[in-house]
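Section 5.1 Outputs to date
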Amino acid sequence: MNHFIVDGKYKDLLQQAGLDVTEILRRAGLPDDILNHKTIAMQEEQYYRFMQAIGESMPDDKAVIGLATSDQMEAFSSPIFAAWCSRNGLVCIQRLAAYKKLIGPLTWTLQQDDDTATLFIDPGDTSLTIPSYLVQSDIAFLIGMIRKAAKEGIVPTKITLTEETGDALPDYAGVTVTKGNENSITFVSSDLNKPFVSFNPAMWDYFEPEMNKRLGDLGVDDSMAARVRSALSELLPSGTCSIEDVAGKLGLSKRTLQRKLSEEETTFKQLSRSN
């Protein structure tokens, strides 16, 4: 199955928030090494489990909003920084919608009329449900970015979520959150047209070509053989590099690891000899 490249400094961000990264990965049923790869790749369902585990590790809803709106978020990934450099909030949302899949497997769709602009947040795979933590984080992050970049206390006119939420998001957003059949946020168009003090067209010119290239290369097949070689490289110095050690590090049983390698027409013995 194809994986999605997951952009962003998740490990640094979680550690700065005082969260136990290893515990989060284990809670999500993900390999301990997954955030150590140069290219982080997850299936969409794995990504949602990861986000769910982060949400469950948060002490309360206020901490969720605090992490999503922290100053470190602007440097979290190149699509976010490129959006920070936009002319205004409308262009910011358009850029984030265009390059959202470089951050994670979500779909942002912007719909506009004469007076308002509404952003809809949907899963890439419609058979899956986006964790409440992820939706709330995305919405709080967007509000925070627009407010900081425009130096204005912009308040959305409406927020709709498919799941109930606590008081932290409504208090931060300044608007009641409605439960409905969609995840969306609506702004007055004139608010989104307010200029960003962070506007930097030169930085956009720098980021755009590379982001377009990465968007074209989005789907990757993160082979099990590559993950085993990476795990072996990390385990070799300690001398604990048996197939059981590697399987444990990758969050798999020995039998599952052998089966997956067999599907790729290789074996653990071949990989360990070549490492």
